[in-house]
Amino acid sequence: MSEIYRELTDLWERAVYLRDIKGEDWENISELVKVLEDLRRDFYERPSADLEKRLPGFRSRILELEDLAARTLTPYEVVRIVRHPQRFTLLDILENVYDRYTELGGEGEINIDPAVVVARAMISRRVGDKVYLHQVMVIGHEKGHGEEFREGGSAKPWGNEKALRYMKIAETEGIPIHFYIFTPGAYPIEDYPGAAQQIARNLYTMAKLKVPMVAFISEGGSGGAEAIGLADMRLMASRGYYSVISPEGAAAIEAKLKSGRPPRELVERCARNLRLTAEDNLRLGTIDRIVPEPPLGARRRDYAFFRRLRYEMIRATDEVVLQTRSLRTFRKYVLSRRNGSEVPEDFGIYVNWELSEDEKEILLENRSRKYREMSRWAICGRVSRLQSYLEKGQDLGTRMFHGLRHGIFRQSQKALRRMFEEFTQEGSAFLKPVTDPVKTVYNLVAGRKKKVPRIVSPIERIEEPEDIYVSPLALEDRTVTCPNAETHGCPDLWVPDLYGEFCGVCPNCGHHFPLEYQWYLNNIFDRGSIREFNEEISSGNPLNFEGYAEKLAEARKKTGRNSAMLTFEAKIGGISLIVAMLIADFRQGTVGVAEGEKFIRACDRARVTRRPFLALVHTTGGIRIHEGTLGVVQMPRCTLAAREYIDSGGLYIVVYDNNSYAGPVASFLGCSPYQFALRSTRLGFAGPRVILETTGQPVPPDYHSAENALRRGHIQGVWDRRELRLKLYEALLTMGGRNLYYR
Amino acid sequence: MGIDHRKINRLLQKLRSHPYCVYAIETPHTGYLRSFRVKEGSEVQPGEILFLLERERNLKPVKSRVSGRVQRLRQDLLDRFVEAGEPILEIWHPLSQEEVISEILQEALQVLRAPETARYLPSPEIEARLRKDGPGKALVHPGEDLLIMTFMKRETPIRHEGPPAVIYRIFFDPQEVVPAGNPLLGLCSPEEVPYIDRVLARIREEWPEQ
Amino acid sequence: MKERLLIANRGEIALRIMEACEELGLDYVVVYTRADEESLHVRRARRKFRIADYRDPNEILAVADEAGCTAVHPGYGFLAEDFRFARRVVKRSRPLIFVGPRWEVIRDLGSKLNVKRLAREMGIPVIPGTTEPLYNEIEAEAKAEELFQWLVENGEPEPRLLIKASAGGGGMGIEEVRELDEVRPIFRRVRAYAKRLFGDEGVVIEAKLSCFQHLEVQLLGNQHGELVHFGTRNCTIQSPGRQKRVELAPGFDPAYLTYEFSPERVLEEIVNHSLKMAEAVGYDSVGTWEWLVTPEGRAYLMEVNTRIQVENEISARISRIRKRPVNLIREQIRMALGEKLGYTQRDITFQGTAIELRLVAEDTRRNFRPLSGTITRFQYPRYPWLTVRTHVPQDRPYTIPTEYDPNLALLIVWGENTPQALERARRALEEMILEGHTSGGGPLHSNVSYLWEKLKEVYRFPV
To answer: What are the percentages of helix, strand and coil residues in chain A, rounded to 5?
Structure first.
């Protein structure tokens, strides 16, 4: 009797699950659900024999449907599987994969952030008749099974901070970290220090954390996933998804929706275009291995899956560890893998997860190589493998050249500097504003007396034959009203004055009007000092995202550029530096493979030539969604390169302007110790609309202002555009590490 | 200082019989009156564009600061060059609860009036205090600079004389020239604050928000 | 085509420009603000436009276009020395003639530092001090030490320096330093002030002369490279706010006083230096070179005013061109319209002494506080030797606008010699009637008695 009821319930649940995944209109599933529901409700009113007779029919129908469902599973249905309340969560894993665990930093709702769970756990393996226990730190998102306080696994900044804290503890204790990524995305709030800033800090730390890290992705929602995703080995559930944006979000952008829901058909198409399934990601090289689940996804009670997961996590950790040791052992170990559906009880081999100091170094090298290699295949333009090797050779040459040059001159320069310092006692005080800059004693002593171009009005241009840059905005005889006129009483501004002499700044209230990126190129750097490199690296369409190739072609035509990232060498007050600049004109300064690669190469060039490195953000709209997770992995990739540059003793400065949002800010830009924003910047993780949709709360208009970013501790200062050149010059002289050519 | 309830009642009665304030909307500067965005008799809200004025190829929307009904709209000026300060239309603004309160407060409080037609600014200390505590709480001590008057190109401080007082109300806009004799600040002694709060509560009850 | 001038100013200068236009047979258009509705410059003009603000170039140019003007006269103050305005006037899509020097000249001579630098290069003496803005304390201290040294060597019993905001002017952002130890804190204070007020941290240091006379050289140039001078003026008598109150032409009068130096030589020197610099920059309008002269007869160039000045008429009053009277505003407009001088320096002769008295509603006993109020009665005598320049009506009460300087009238008195001019000046002051009340109801003060007193001090070094 109860046996029949239990089976009926089971069939009903499976039917409901099918309906949830495939939709109400699929194969009359709703009808079947209703029939089963009615049977369950009237179970005790009906003769059981009758039911018993009908059960096998239902059973075979459900099996048939499940089979069909699995065969016709679309990417968007995979997303639904992942979001289903019956899907396994991190706490299920802690219960079933680990042998003992203690949750740290909170319990359930009583927690600094219930969406992030950290646990000190033990995982066991059997070798022969011996059981070995490994200590690990488990860090991951907890989606919960519908509890609201978990926010669906969206980590708040302090949740990610908790994660970071325990990563460092794992490093102190020398135990591996297992990350479990179950997040639709980070909770997009700008409270201390801001979602983007915290993710960037996490990435910066993970880039060089000296313990093996293995990540497992069930729901990899873009930047939120990367916050705990820069691991040595990245596994992914076969029915998980890993994407730059939710299909709904992508559809809203594609349809240019300001509010409301995008049509289902478009969402399906976006899900397909985003290449977000495990197979896709494996093919793209953004993950290393797939952990198989049942065809329609693993649920809370799929114990076989948990056994599999335990095996895979241990193996992955072993592999990371062994890769730091002998290559032979590693190969042998890889061959020992059993790919059958059943997980062996006996591991057959024990690997000690503790690393020696040398092994830690190798671990970091392996990690660096892994991420630098990631997505490289998708680079377009005149850059072949061969060339990048050649470049390496050149790098070596350049490094030696610069070593020699500055090694030799260093001594005398140092002496000069000392003399200068003794003379002034206040070295940094010798700086003058940009209107009359750089005639400092230091420059006179160092023999770098350079006349700095004045910012010249358009009118003078007409009279002086010299090729002076004039903002195209300035070439109109008309006036504009400052947006603050009502509150600050600003007079109307004559456009040639405003975009000429005033640098696009209202002289009365200091309001910054937006300026084109060429203005920065022409007014911030010494005249004629800009030498662009790697221009040929171009944005491509690695996912074959429908309609994207046309958009790219249009951007190329409009800007005459191949990507949104400009990288160049330039000088400020005679000091040579490397600059990476994201520009609004090319796809809103979004970052994809080409932009990431150019950034990394610029970083490396700055490192080997011992130049200071400036990231100048004219605008960035985030990671380019059309490149999917290939875009997302630019976050860890570029952060790693930036970290290696900073560690080498350089000076990495970031200056934001206009709209600076999302992935890049949450990684390679946000990781800089010296971040500044111009007054006109709106800086943060997600824009006001996304915040409203995610949190249900509208934000005030100045939420993303530079001043608020400063208040939150995201940036280190707010700069005035008129002083940008001077401020940069000051920064070059006073900030950064020891390994700069002029130190 | 006692509060004269009879006087307040009389004022309330007067306001009830003519609950309007007429705002004459003038051109802020010269230019061509390009288009009207309102019609005679239309109801406007604060921030609504009334008309467009073009000067030196800058089309500037002139917005309403108050709500009310548009009257005496100068249709004849359309597409003509107008001088600064030219009356374009009137807005008959029904007095809101807050405005009634403002009128009443001018009776109930010790009002500091503008000694000269000039611009006025709160002194930095007072401004900081107002920002921190808000009107109704910010206290000013004897001998402190209350306001700074910008008059005949000079800045003259206006000192607070008399016992410590609470700045209960600010009647002026620092952006505007205040004609001599207009109210600047409403002050009261700290003990009077609860009484005045009560008067205001009474008005809020009697004069419900539209 | 007949030129039409937009007069972008108010008060008596607007009236004088109107008069000059009428003499030249030019059309003109006047602008005014609501506060000035009762002013004579508004009442007298046939075509006039009400604007929001004399300082707003957009208002001026909008009216100029609407009224079909071909030229703009900025008068003095307001936009007169704003090179951006001058530039916009000539560079806009509907260009106008700017009655004043070329905008580049305004820009380059508008910066005191630039003038100093230029003067040094040309061997013209300037008050010792910095020629470039300083931005840091160490440089400032080094400079200050040097300047103290110089003052001591020049026999200053109490050497003083001035630390100023380089972008400042009109007495704002200036502090005095008595000893070297004060330099650093005061420098920092002025620098912070400058940054806050002018958006530029630049600071200059200058030696302070304890005793000097303030002399001016009146020049007139044009686009054809012609350049003449109309003698010198003495503007030593100023209110504590450094505002001129009594001016005389010529700059020195050896017949009236004896000097410890040769006044003729000094006057010649400053005129020649001024001409030299004007020629070097291609000065093409009326302009004034301001000088400080010490009791020892040393002259230092202080600044250049690239506009018509309030006191221009006393120079005109003592000058004759081929025996005919001179109107400098008319000459300025003529030059702007591209005409030639039609005379040379040799045709210009000088005769007598002229005194200008600036009648201002101010409380001279209370730190020259400007006053506002209503003038109920205003009368002055008529003499051939007296010119009164005023926008204050005599036929009805006049309320002094509070937004502008309360200048009421200029009394320009001429005499065969200084004693006669002084005597006539006294008579004019005595016979003038000015009555009124303040907004508070009290009597309206003016500076008449102060001017009377100051007449005793003319041409003398202050004690």
So the answer is: 50, 15, 35
